[in-house]
Amino acid sequence: MNGNIKTLHLSNLPRRPESIPNFIRLLLKAINPVNEYALSPSLDLPTNTTASYPTELELLDSKNNIIAISRSHSKKLSSTCFITFVTADDAKVFLETYKSKPLMVNGRRVLIEYAKKESLLAIALDETKPGLFEKILNTRHKQKLLKLDEDASELHTMKRKSRRLRSKLRKQGLDETRIAQKIKEFQDMAIKTKQDEISKRLPSSKPSTQKQPTHKIIDNPPNNKLLVQNIPNGTTEAEIEQLFKGEGFKGIRLVAVRNVAFIEYESIEQATIVKDSLGKDPSWKGSIIYITFAK
User: Fold this and answer.
1) Which CATH architecture has domain 225-293?
2) Where is each RRM domain found (predicted)?
3) Is cis: bond before 232, omega within 30 of 0?
């Protein structure tokens, strides 16, 4: 299984520099001291993304056939990264090379192993599994929509629990009529419990303090930054990141007093994919949020 994977996981890397481009150049220099991007910081790093696929790939390192290096934005995972290669053989050769002589980056011995899962870019390039990339994107899109729509999420959960209950009752030998009755009782109880929870959370007679946009929402020309307006009061950057994090995500600037946030991505294409996947004026945490391109 591992022999067919194009993605490697590296750990015990230095946490600095925090800048991802500078981090990539540091790693490339350790891997290949004559790498052009490591030697010339003025050169723009190639960005091979699923958004631009299937255009021609640009190599980050021609010696090792590296097409992507991705690093988590989480501080807890900042000492790790993933490297995607053109082929599984390239990944295997790289891994074998550093078994005999460890890869050292700023005095740290880097641990290298196969990734548990392929990167999205590697999956997009895999012609042996047609349709898998689109299936994964559709699944992620549905998961994001479920997070946005509380009612749809609860219905999805109820259906899943109902299927499990049906399977359990069949194993107990109950006939289909009795099973249908049991499932209806379960669903009725779940609905009643939810209604009771809503009743307890009914809003008071005090007017809402949530700020609403007083101006017309006008979208700007596409760029790599999104502007999110009408964010619910009390929302944290971590919650916003969970909703907007995708390939190429760089960071968030939350302006809580204005109920707005700016989300930055590495490219216009990546920002557009996230914007389109969330749809027009989605409902989130009980509020309609407005997503446009920033100026």
Assistant:
1) 2-Layer Sandwich (3.30)
2) 224-295
3) no
